[in-house]
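Worked example 3 (structure in, sequence out).
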């Protein structure tokens, strides 16, 4: 499901339409929905709420400038692979991509990317790989702010390690800072996340926000989109 703009932007467009055309709010919303290919605003909202992207292409279409995205899965189910696939798709669209990883070395990351794409070029100027132990919100901001453009994609591998060093700010503060950064710059931030082991004892097939492993406090409402693999 690819909309021309996020829902909140479409709502703003509908409000402007109401003023300029002197029509009801309902009529304005429906006009916007019809321009997006849906019969009514209620149908568009229902489809958007129910939509669950599964492939890298679908996820890239699902995320917009300024989004803070949680990409979570149990161990071994391919969350890092999916994040790298999304990065490859992004740079294939001539967008800047950044991969900050606590988990892998640069050579390991390159090997994973080559396994996903035989034609992957490690020297592609659109992709920046950083596997420093010093990664933090401020580190990411410092490393990207001079080259970042709207719709650039930043992947953090992974969320729970951002504050593993005591001298770094709390996880809450770092995610708040990165959310502000995403809004200011129009970049997209994807955080790879672990799932709590207790989920494996449940009968559910798919985890939810309650299953995110949080060794330290974090308000998960900071993320405006969540994808479970």
């Amino acid at each position: 499901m690819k909309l021309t703009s996020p829902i909140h932007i479409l709502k703003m467009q509908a409000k402007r339409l109401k003023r300029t055309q002197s029509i009801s709010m309902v009529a304005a919303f429906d006009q916007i929905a019809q321009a997006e290919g849906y019969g009514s605003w209620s149908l568009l909202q229902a489809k958007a709420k129910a939509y669950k992207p599964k492939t890298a292409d679908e996820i890239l279409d699902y995320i917009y400038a300024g989004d803070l995205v949680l990409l979570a899965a149990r161990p071994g189910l391919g969350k890092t692979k999916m994040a790298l696939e999304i990065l490859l798709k992004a740079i294939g669209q001539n967008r800047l991509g950044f991969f900050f990883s606590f988990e892998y070395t640069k050579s390991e990351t390159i090997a994973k990317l080559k396994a996903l794409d035989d034609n992957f070029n490690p020297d592609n100027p659109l992709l920046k790989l950083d596997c420093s132990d010093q990664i933090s919100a401020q580190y990411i901001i410092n490393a990207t702010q001079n080259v970042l453009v709207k719709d650039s994609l930043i992947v953090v591998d992974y969320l729970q390690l951002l504050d593993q060093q005591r001298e770094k700010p709390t996880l809450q503060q770092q995610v708040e800072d990165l959310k502000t950064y995403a809004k200011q710059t129009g970049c997209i931030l994807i955080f790879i996340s672990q799932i709590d082991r207790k989920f494996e004892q449940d009968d559910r097939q798919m985890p939810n926000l309650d299953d995110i492993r949080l060794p330290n406090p974090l308000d998960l409402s900071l993320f405006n989109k969540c994808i479970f693999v």
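Notes: The radius of gyration is 19 Å. The longest strand covers residues 188-194.
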